[in-house]
Description:
Elements: H1 29-42, E1 52-56, H2 68-75, E2 84-87, H3 93-106, E3 113-117, H4 132-135, H5 137-143, H6 148-156
Parallel strand pairs: 1-2, 1-3
Helix pairs in contact: 1-2
Amino acid sequence: MSDILILDAARTPRARVRREGGTFAHLAPADLLAGVLSELTARGLPDDQIDDLIIGVSTAAGDQGGDVARVAAIAAGWPETVPAGTVSRLCCSGLDAVASGAAQIGSGGARLVVVGGVESMSRVPMGSNGGAMAGDPEFAVKTGFVPQGIGADTIAT
């Protein structure tokens, strides 16, 4: 098994979230992510040696639908030879991306994997892709369901 090391970390700042007028509402999620990827390159990440880019996204719809990781890699100026994929496991999407990258490195299938997550709740509100869990009041009462955004903000604070 290969050693697995985290070499660097970068993120966008937390910001005010609103459908209209949120701090980053003027930026598409791919552009937010491209800024982070560009920063990693500026810090010395050899983008021509990346074996994979894995990005988690909770609400894979609208501006975050399709393969937002691929769009961001291209927008960041990374070589078109860098593979990029998006995973969606709701609130565990970024963590799943990290685990997938670690598994690739640990198994010897990759040497350098960039992992992370992207979400723009100003442009793609949580739950905008539908789903019974958040949209069924009876389920929420029965289970004590709390929206992920409230839980995430509470933890971050």
